[in-house]
Amino acid sequence: MDYLFSPWRMEYIENHLKAEGCVFCLEQEKSDGLDNLIVTRGQNAFVILNRYPYTSGHIMTVPHIHKSTLEELDPETRAEMFELATNGMRVLRRIYNPQGFNVGVNIGEAAGAGITEHVHLHVVPRWMGDTNFMTSLGKTRVLPENLEQTYLRVCEEWGRVGE
């Protein structure tokens, strides 16, 4: 029998109780680093790694302000979210050389939003064949590096955007 070990998932399994308050608002209150996974902060929005990513390098752009939909945000905040997402794609291309991206916003539970109360934009790097039998049949994702390494790589490369 083959075994697939993913020890980082134990935190998710054991921590099934949600924290009081909005996860994005709570993360903003912490100092940036491995504790909150915030890569960079802009004037109106920030970039954070997804703690439970679909693929390595899965980032999100999040407005500082707590709003549940894009139309509640001012145009400057929406524009900054998309500029941060664009810079994120540049960074992820340089690190992972993905063959494509999924970029999108899920607004409301019916649309698949896991966090409905604070709108956020996903940037997910993709490769041909990355949705294989593990995801389709086993409902399991295989990530080639741990989250801490992803965070350090993305932060380092973020400083080089525009070079």
Describe this structure in words.
- The protein has helices at 9-14, 23-28, 75-96, 133-136, 147-158; strands at 38-41, 45-49, 59-63, 100-104, 121-126.
- By secondary structure, the protein is α+β, with helices and mostly antiparallel strands.
- The protein has a 5-stranded antiparallel β-sheet with strand order 1-2-3-5-4.
- Helix 3 (75-96) packs across helix 5.
- The model has no long low-confidence stretch (mean pLDDT 86).
Strand order of the largest sheet: 1-2-3-5-4
Oligomer: single chain
Order of helices and strands: HHEEEHEEHH
Low-confidence stretches: none
Helix content: 25-40%
Task: Give the strand content.
Answer: 15-25%
Largest sheet: 5 strands, antiparallel
Number of strand segments = 5
The global form is globular
Radius of gyration: 16 Å
Tag the structure with descriptive keywords.
163 residues, alpha+beta, 5 strands
Could you outline the blueprint of secondary structure elements for this entry?
Elements (H helix, E strand, L loop, with lengths): L8 H6 L8 H6 L9 E4 L3 E5 L9 E5 L11 H22 L3 E5 L16 E6 L6 H4 L10 H12 L5
Antiparallel strand pairs: 1-2, 2-3, 3-5, 4-5
Helix pairs in contact: 3-5
Short description:
The chain has 163 residues and is of the alpha+beta class. 31% of the residues lie in helices and 15% in strands.
